[in-house]
Specification:
Layout (H helix, E strand, L loop, with lengths): L1 H8 L6 H23 L2
């Protein structure tokens, strides 16, 4: 996926897993917030 290549290009060596973790947590948080807003 090209967007991930752009993301990881300016992530220091060895921190790719942290970048992936924050990406996954961020999208999950956005989904939870949107879900809570949608179901109110």
């Amino acid at each position: 996926m090209p967007p991930l290549d752009i993301l990881f290009r300016h992530v220091p060596e060895g921190y790719e897993f942290l970048g992936a973790l924050f990406t996954i947590l961020g999208s999950l948080t956005i989904m939870v917030i949107l879900g809570a807003w949608w179901s109110r």
